Amino acid sequence: MILKSIQVLYDKNQKNFDDKTRNEIGLFAGIIGIIINFILFLIKIFVGLFSNSIAITADAFHSLSDSASSIVTIIGFKIGSKPADEEHPFGHGRMEYISALIVAFMILIVGFEFVKSSLEKIFVPEPVTFKAIHFLLLLLSIAFNIVLSIFNRTAGNKINSTALKAIAADNMGDVLTTSVVVFSFLISRFLPFHIDGYVGILVALAIIYAGFTFIKETISPLLGESPDPNLVKSIEEGILSYKPISGVHDLIIHNYGPGRCMASIHAEIPSDINIMKIHEVIDKAEKELSEMLNIYLVIHMDPICIETEEVLSAKNELDRIIENNPLVKSYHDFRIVGEGEIKNLIFDLVINPNELNKTINESDLKSSISRSIKEYHPQYNCVITIDYIFS
């Protein structure tokens, strides 16, 4: 498993991974994290106890919490790699996000505990004993953390793991906090007053900040964050490359964990095309794009008719109207329904809700567009649906 994981991590041509491979890489990264962080804990606790430094001791227990974080990450990968079942039809991939969230709270607890310990050290200061061997051991721990951060970042980016990316950022935070500790440890030899407690506070606050940052990063995908713009662009451009698809809209992407995205989208097709022919095109697009983008893609067919002179005239008028309206990004599902003198002009407007303000709302926008069309085409009753886009 170790040799295979190393080979996969540094294979530039391999980008998509099955659950088994992701689990093996996650397990390998977790084991490496446990071993190295426990070694760092032993080094720092040895230096902290013999030098009587609360800052170094705080940093030691931060490393110990990182070992526990790696254990949680391994558990997260194990559960996250379980296949879909009756209760979880889209698998258990979000467990990786939950494990990252647990790691973040563990980091927070360590930070708050050492704020308390450092405050006690400030009010009841004790001298710090400096020795060259202790200083060298701390420098060695910094080198360990740099290597570990690079390794976890490489693994996290390779398999798109939020948990490993969080741990990599935490490792780099360890580099900074340990560097501050080492610097304070060095200058404590030459200062007439004790700064150990104050440096301990700085280390603890850095740990707390890292914890809150990880919480924010891991809660976002659990709540349902906006999809990656590059993925959105790839899906839309990919579908439009299949002829005779002329437009796409209503893209929805659900994230069920790294490598477990489900996307649905509406594709506009000519209304007069053979149904079996276009079904073959849509089916091909779904299969090829799903494999290429590592998602599960479902395409809904929207037949449109723009061949008649009446439809083209009404469409051109709507183009002119929305061109001067900065709120409207685009429109789709345009059609004319009905017989006789009075007909329904039906279409969906795409807007960014963040750009709506107190002077205009959805109802006002619909009324404004309807009135503008009525001025030139009084025979049409507009039936407008508002779609949102958050970009």
UniProtKB/TrEMBL annotation:
One of its GO terms (molecular function) is monoatomic cation transmembrane transporter activity. Residues 227-303 form the Cation efflux protein cytoplasmic domain. Its main location: membrane. Gene3D superfamilies: Cation efflux protein transmembrane domain, Cation efflux protein, cytoplasmic domain. Pfam families: Cation_efflux, ZT_dimer. Keywords: Membrane, Transmembrane, Transmembrane helix, Transport. The chain crosses the membrane at residues 25-47, 95-112, 132-151, 172-191, 197-215. It is found in: Membrane. Residues 31-223 form the Cation efflux protein transmembrane domain. InterPro entries: Cation_efflux, Cation_efflux_CTD, Cation_efflux_CTD_sf, Cation_efflux_TM, Cation_efflux_TMD_sf, CDF_Transporter. One of its GO terms (cellular component) is membrane. It is a multi-pass membrane protein. NCBIfam families: CDF. Belongs to the cation diffusion facilitator (CDF) transporter (TC 2.A.4) family. PANTHER family: MITOCHONDRIAL METAL TRANSPORTER 1-RELATED. This is Cation transporter.
